[in-house]
Amino acid sequence: MSAPGRRTVWSWACYDWANSAYATVVLAGFFPLLFQDFWSTDADAATANLRLGWFNASASLVIVLTAPLLGAVGDRAGARKRLLLAFAVLGVLGTGLLAGVPGGDWLAAGLLFTCATVGFMGANIFYDALLVSVAPRERWHAVSGLGFGLGYLGGGLLYLGCVLAALNPAAFGFSSTSEAALAAFGATALWWALFTLPLLIWVPEPAANAGDGTALGGGFRQLAATVRQLRAYRPVLVFLIAYWLYIDAVGTTIRMAVAYGRSLGFEQGDLIVALLITQFVGFPAAIAFGWLGERIGPRRGIFIGLGVYIGICAWGALIQSAWEFYVIAVLVGLVQGGVQSLSRSLYARLIPPAAAGEFFGFYNLLGKFAALIGPPLFGLFGAWFGDVRYSMLALILLFVAGAAVLTRVRETGPAPAPA
Predict the structure, then answer these.
(1) Domain count, the chain
(2) Could you tell me if 229 and 399 are in contact, meaning their C-beta atoms sit under 8 angstroms apart?
(3) Does 338 fall in a domain?
(4) What is the pLDDT of residues 245-279, one digit of tens each?
(5) Domain, as residue range, for 233
(6) Confidence check: pLDDT of 68 > 60
(7) Residue 343: how many CB atoms within 10 A of its CB?
(8) With pLDDT > 70 as the criterion, what percentage of the chain qualifies?
């Protein structure tokens, strides 16, 4: 790959380093804790969790309702970078303003969090779609793995710094843990904004998918044409069904790991260490999976990751000690980013490049819908069998079902572009 090509690839992947700070520091780390303990002081834990659930659902609903159309508009107008920037600005501003929300003001915190999350998820539609234009087709697996790898490293480094500041506020010039935690939102916003610049400067905007009329009208027509011609996209549809099943289990593992560990009696410090382990192991592992996808094919790489996940769930149902939780965190880190990165690059090889924005809109839509199955099943299995350990069986079912459907996917080359 030429020097300008390398610069383009690294500039694109740098956005994963940028926005993964939000996923790690805000989504998985500080916001849920502060929302309950700092902003929802007027409510019990159940009410606070209900409020947080509604704000999360609202952000997901916005993306579910708009993602495919926004992607189609980006394709028609040649505006993937501009739309990415618009959503990133929304995310950065929402995140930064959280640092100034006073204690007890759960409504303001929740609304800003919703805006920031919409910005985070919306920008990812166009970031994923840019993959098809930043590198040759045969390099997509490695480039996708590089992005996820940098994301794990960048998010982990910032999260580590924020955790250290929260645990030792005086050493970092803060008067309290709450002040240090609030400052983490400002640091995340700055990080996100700063490391978005390479993509904006050095990643070229793909050419517009020319059509008659306005970009919005053309986007509607392109989306309608895709829906009408779904039979031509059978490999895409089958892959999306498989992806929906297994990425739901991956996401449930991420969302429920801390709660599961706490229910087994592990200390909060153990859970923080486990999250950091996953982040830093995920950095080289995601890159390695990209290399593996080039050597043995992305589908086989995903199968390896899903097989490891099934083993993780079986072990997780029997776990007794904190050291086992650490080992499981290492195993999750080894395969989490790999499954995510190879899924993205395999999907990119199935779709028409000229309509990548629209198709990654569907991809991100399915990613948001994935939360409909896993977490409820996780909770129901524990309730049905009277022991939270049985919740792991629900995840095994999803991984097995996703793998079974994935066997039906054949990489036949990109689908024809919608008329």
Answers:
(1) 1
(2) no
(3) yes
(4) 898 888 777 666 665 676 677 776 777 778 788 88
(5) 3-406
(6) yes
(7) 25
(8) 83
Rounded to whole angstroms, the maximal C-alpha distance in the chain is 63
Handedness of CA 55, 378, 246, 300 (dihedral sign): positive
pLDDT per residue as tens digits for the range 115-169: 999 999 899 989 988 988 898 888 888 898 899 899 989 999 999 999 999 889 9
pTM recorded for the entire structure = 0.78
Q: What pLDDT, on the 0 to 100 scale, is given for residue 3?
A: 45
Q: Which of 155, 68, 24, 140 is nearest to 364 (CA)?
A: 68
Residue 337: name the closest of 295, 309, 378 by CA. Answer: 309
Euclidean distance between CA atoms 170 and 150, whole angstroms = 30
pLDDT at 412: 62
What is the 3 state secondary structure string of the chain? CCHHHHHHHHHHHHHHHHHHHHHHHHHHHHHHHHHHHHHCCCCCHHHHHHHHHHHHHHHHHHHHHHHHHHHHHHHHHCCHHHHHHHHHHHHHHHHHHHCCCCCCCHHHHHHHHHHHHHHHHHHHHHHHHCHHHHCCHHHHHHHHHHHHHHHHHHHHHHHHHHHHHHHCHHHHCCCCHHHHHHHHHHHHHHHHHHCCHHHHHHCCCCCCCCCCCCHHHHHHHHHHHHHHCHHHHHHHHHHHHHHHHHHHHHHHHHHHHHHHHHHCCCCHHHHHHHHHHHHHHHHHHHHHHHHHHHHHCHHHHHHHHHHHHHHHHHHHCCCCCHHHHHHHHHHHHHHHHHHHHHHHHHHHHHCCHHHHHHHHHHHHHHHHHHHHCHHHHHHHHHHHHCCHHHHHHHHHHHHHHHHHHHCCCCCCCCCCCCC
- With respect to residue 263, please indicate whether it lies within any of the assigned structural domains: yes
CATH code assigned at 207: 1.20.1250.20
Residue 131 in domain: yes
**238 vs 215, which has greater pLDDT?**
238
Say which residues have a Cβ less than 8 Å from residue 104's Cβ, sequence separation at least 6.
Answer: 39, 41, 42
